[in-house]
């Protein structure tokens, strides 16, 4: 079955950087676009960006353009989210997601906390 497992979150100071990973299994990773979302405390889950199956095309929410970079390794079946210049408002649980056979799958999320 499709499985997604995010990792790489943690406590980081404002201005710092993190790289989140999403390890996948149960589907042919290289054939599917992938996306990242996040849910901040007390808020709805927000779209951050997506990457094409071949890794060439990306799309980002306006709120994160220039600071967030999505990439993927189609050999390791892993999706990445590089976050730079972290701000306290980036504090959230970060999720990767994929739609396979008209079903959307989510990982369990990884917590990112930005605080001094």
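^ Assign residues to that structure.
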């Amino acid at each position: 079955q499709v499985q997604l497992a995010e990792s790489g979150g943690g406590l980081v100071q404002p201005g710092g950087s993190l790289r989140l990973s999403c390890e996948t299994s149960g589907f042919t990773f290289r054939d599917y676009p992938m996306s990242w979302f996040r849910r901040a405390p007390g808020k709805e889950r927000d779209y951050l960006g997506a990457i094409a199956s071949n890794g060439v095309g990306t799309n980002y929410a306006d709120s994160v353009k220039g600071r967030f970079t999505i990439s993927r390794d189609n050999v390791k079946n892993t999706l990445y989210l590089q976050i730079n210049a972290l701000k306290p408002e980036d504090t959230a649980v970060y999720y990767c997601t994929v739609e396979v056979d008209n079903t959307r799958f989510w990982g369990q999320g990884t917590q990112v906390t930005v605080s001094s």
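The chain has a mean pLDDT of 97.
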